[in-house]
Sequence to fold (60 residues):
Amino acid sequence: MRHIYGTNLMEQSGDIHLLMTQLGHTSTTTAALYTNPEQEKAKKAAKKLGERRTNYLEKD
Fold:
C-alpha cells in the first residue's frame, strides 16, 4: 500500500519533496524509488498503439 501511495503521489504531483515529507524519507535517492520512468514510457507506447489502431480501423 505504501509503494502504491508513493507512486501515485509522484504521478499526480511530480513533487519529490512532497513525497519525501509524506513518506518520511530524508534522501532523494530513497524517494526516487517511487518514480518509475519505465512505467511512463509503457503508458505512452500503449497510447500510441491505441491511436494507431483507431486510425487504422477508421480507414476501413
In short: The two ends are 45 Å apart (CA to CA).
